[in-house]
Fold each of these.
Amino acid sequence: MDEILLARSTFGTTMAFHIIFASLGVGLPLMILLAEVLYLRTKDSDYRLMAKRWIKGQAILLGVAIPSGTIAGVQLSLLWPGFMEVVGKVISLPFQIEIFAFFLEALFMSIYVYAADRLTPWMRLLSVFLVLVGATASAVLITNVHAFEGTPAGFDIVNGQIVNVDPWAAFFNPSFVVTALHVTVSAYMTGAFVIATVAAYKMLKTRKDTKEFHFHQKALLMGLIVGGTFSLLTALNGHESAQYLHRYQPEKLAAAEGLFETQPYAPLAIGGYTDPVTKEVKYAIEIPWALSFLAANRFDEVVVGLNDFPQEYWPPLFIHVLFNGMVGIGSLLIFVGFIGFAWKKLLKRESYPRWVMWIFVASGPLSILGIEFGWVFACTGRQPWVIYRMMTTAEAATKAEGLGFFFAIFLAIYILLGIVTVLVFKYYFRRHPLRLQDGSQEAAK
Amino acid sequence: MTDTVIAVTLLWIFVMIYAVAASIDFGAGFWSMVYLNHEKTRATNIANRYLSPSWEVTNVFIVLIVVALVTFFPGAIYTLGSVLMIPVSLVLLLLLIRSAFLVFSHLIDEYHKMLSIVSGITGFLIPALLILVLPITQGGFIKVVKDVPMLDFMGLLTSPHAFSYIGLAVTSTLFLSSLLLSDYSHVSGATQAFKIYRRDAILIGPVTLLMAILTLQTMRLENGWLYDKIFDNLPWLVASAVFFFLCYIFLLLPQRAKIGLSLPRLSVICALIQYLLASYAYGAAHLPYIVYPDITIESGFTDHATFHALFVSYIVGFAILIPGFIYFWRMFMKDENYLRQRPKQKT
């Protein structure tokens, strides 16, 4: 491997690992807040207990999210010093403000976790609300930098010098709002479906008509409704994201769809893979005119194909598969959320069949997979640029050598920590089983 | 003051806050390992109780420092990123492991022993690695090969100057943390733990002073430019030494006395002032260089428009956050019930 690929692999591994914990760290506080609100409204102590158990999960996840996020932040400077020089001069505001969001989250997280029994209900609600605000703001602000990489604004490079800097123009770069919304709603979706996963799994393992079963059923319904709603929002916003690609990064959309010829009435290729030799998408289902419609809401829209760009600026063609994976999972999840809701509320059935339950179990891991696909798609689809048409990844990378060693060590540590996290989850929740009769005992623990 | 001086001052303040908070944090981890088997004294308990809520907030400061450095002095990032790659990556790995265990052990009692060992070992390794930033940025260990700055790692590992810094960092960590824990256990009413931590502070205090003198000596041999400039700030150094002796006297006095504040609290305050003054002397002497001799605060500075936007965001951000910090402080550092663990007494 060359050093640039090693640098990308090291940073990519950090992000692939961190993004799981980061997304859940944004999504779970929403579920906890909703549970606290439902508790205040219904006085059903099950919801309070849910909030209490979920916050423990959140605490375990944060134990990994915070240090891995710290690593991501520092590695940016270590691995991409060229990029960070532009960041420092042009797009430093979001990083700066993110610190405050991070502080807010850390402070109130500590208060909510370590001092919950000393807080009034409203103070508790406020604390978890501020955790949610902090976590969401962090996600939005970091995405801001990502959006800037795709649609840079607010500076010029003249003779290698960065000039005409306007930090607020860089901050409000064209794709900021739509991209940040995409990350936020998909994180909310993931948090909700992960709750649904756990609840559905527990229901499969619990006898019906027990209190525990009903407890999990409430959690499941909450997860499915919230998850379904946000997966719908993710899709609507995803449609808009695709139109932004059409307008601002046409070669990325072309590679995502495996489109080579520039054309109106462009077809949408679903599935299959892009063959670089024959320049076509193999084994795909083609829907005529659909891509043009997707790109601009009209069938005669001209969609630019890859042939219009020099081959050295093509993104890797495998992103077609990633793009399809992301969209496929997203669509499936809307459906999952809808079944859960319809079965219960429209058909008024008491319980779900077992095979449906297993689909619910799969929803959380699928959401995470969708996020990973989407993120790898977004970043590899921008290659060879780190800042679109401004700076290449190769220019940004560190010139230090010996990255292979660190790549190996970080990879090993992430795998180890992943395993330990799972063990801690298993161990903790086995040691603290759900006891609905003596819920107050649980609280004291 | 010019923009660059404001920026470097802010950065210095963040580094100071982190250095103190992290010394206490890492040192507390070390002490919780040392007193693991002293069941009766509760020394380990006290250390862990301090650590639980505070490490997250301390940890944010690392990111704050990196962000402040990148945003204020992006021109320094290329060199710093390249030469600090190895030590900082090692620090990151250790931090990752440590933080994970801190959280896990809070949830699972059986992990407490393992936590104390993990946070104890990382507790002195991390400061030892972090301090290497100082000798590296003083120059002498950076080779430029084909326009790429590289760290002369072997040179660093065989340098007495680097080792005297490591000694200074580790002893200071232990000194500051034992001081703060003595105050913390004093407030918590844990007499046994208080005695132990006070004794540790009394033992280590003079060693830190020796290490500081040793570091100045090795600096004279290896980085004469900085040594000469530090002595331009002699009054600050003298004042720092005075506060060290004040701190030490408060520590030695019979602890029933009270001069406004309790004596352990006074010791802590004097020690903090001592480190503040010494680091001011160091920082002022180091200026205008970020990395000697190539990068100065002027050459590395960000765009002025960006700096002004950042400055506004700092003011707004801290205005919003300070009430949160105060609330946090009252929750964990002042609340008698929390400190004495009234609601439930774990054995």
Amino acid sequence: MTHAPERVKGETLLSVRDLSVTFDTRRGPFQAVRGTSFDVGRERVGIVGESGSGKSMTGRAILGLVRPPGRVTASRLTFDGIDLRALPDRQMRRIRGQRVSMVMQDPRYSLNPVMTVGRQIAEALRVHGRPSREEIRRRSLDMLTEVQIRDPERVLKAYPHELSGGMGQRVMIAMMLVTEPELLIADEPTSALDVTVQLDVLRILDDLVRRRGMGLIFISHDLRLVSTFCDRVLVMYRGRIVEEIEARRLHEARHPYTQGLLNCLPRIGGGHGDLPTLQRQEAWNDA
Amino acid sequence: MTSANIEDPRGPGRARIPSSRGLSRAARRVASFVFSLAVTLFGLLLVTFLIARVVPLDPVLAVVGDRATQAQYEAARVELGLDRPLPEQFVRYVGDVLTGDLGTANLTGQPVLRDIQRTFPNTLELATFATILGIVLGIPGGVVGAVFQGRWPDQVIRVVGLLGYSMPVFWLGLVALLIFYGILGWAPGPGRLDVTQQFTYEFDVTRYTGSVILDSALSGAWDVFRNAVAHLILPAAVLGYFSMAYISRMTRSFMLEQLGQEYITAARVKGVPEWRVIWVHALGNAMVPLITVIVLSYASLLEGSVLTETVFAWPGLGLYVTQALFAADFNAVLGGTLVIGAMFIVLNLLSDILYAIVDPRAR
């Protein structure tokens, strides 16, 4: 789908050092994310890993969305030079939605069922600044057109249950990008969709991210998808980043976990034998 | 009746009906409502009728007294139509009810319909004010409890609610009377009105609606109005306390469920302020199940505030029916039961309408 993309160098949008997310459970603290460090510029970074590897939690911690009893610690967590760790709520909200946004997994759950699409998009605009009614309408319609919704007037008045999954996710993307953020966190944006519409939604997302020159953190469990869609891939295992690699060099991955994941992928024409199971090793926990 | 009976093969609710047929859909809805109303009312009439015939109480004896001769007894029996076969009696009963004739109450010597017109508005006033109180205090209480889950505001609200649950209403009513009427003298005593206001009400106030508060206001009798409101406060507060305890508990649990949903996170991602996330996004969705809870609690107050009405000498329907029951006054009991049953049907309709307002998926 994509050619080898040029990485825009120099400008670092997001800088994360030693990020940990801890939950205090009855059996002692549980670390969902254990000291991850990475930088994201105006590029497309994929985070892959199996369920529970901490990839979603990483995304949510960046936006300050980890609710108690979860605790977030980091030695550095900055966006555009702004320290997000101790930011007052009001300033944090100015960054959320406006400058950093997130597309979530399943539009059936991530859109408010009792609010029209129009109101939900308008809300994103209204939270930041005081746009006029006409401006809201124009920008909403433009945005819906940008995500290739054919009948934006009708969709504005529709409720989420009246949309199909693919439409819902396009509305979600529109809602999260209408404020023109600089960084987008896409948390499994196509996993809940039909295979037939997954590619459409990805193409729309890819197109928007390129045209606007945004930074993208693409969270997925689908290694192959991430490698075609992103410039760089972070592989997470048990709350840690075990490998960071350029997407087109993925086949040169050195870490046994990444190699294991790659080996588990079926290949067209690869015969009908059983796929190998991932052999985990204790040592990876501390990698 | 032809097309309405054929089930949509795509299954109920899933069909996308074009807007041009919206009118016929509305008509079908009204028709189906009227039909279900008729069926429910018919069932209600049948049940009340059968209860009256099955219970081992002699309605004739209640009329003539136990010193009547056999001839007097027989005459009364024929006059009441009790010598006819049951189905005929039932048809007559339905006809009477439909023409507004609920018989005469032995207890008061008045037509039952007039007794109900006199007592039901009082119950309606009490239940309505109590429910408003329950909503106004219970919903914010539940929301705050959910937001501060496990911390002290939540604990305080829970304890207050628990007290409401566990205290018998007559006891709470008596204590309230003792403190606010007996000791502090802030509230007027039991009854609907003070004796002097009662006179003014009986003779100078036009009965537009049957509600003392509304009628006195409409007639401009402000002394009566003030007195009626003052008398309402204490019993409404006691009943409202129970309503509040129930509503806040349910609100809390619905809110906790909604606050864990993904669209809440999505709203936070957009930068929506927390108060709006809670009171607009989460509460907007929690209102859907809450409507059923509120309407049901309202309905139970309408039928079952007998104890409160007794403690506060409130001349409402609950008190009326209870007294009629003790006096074996069947016309009055059945009339009251019918009104309460009809109320349930009306409230059912009300909750359907509210549902459609709150939940777009129910439209």
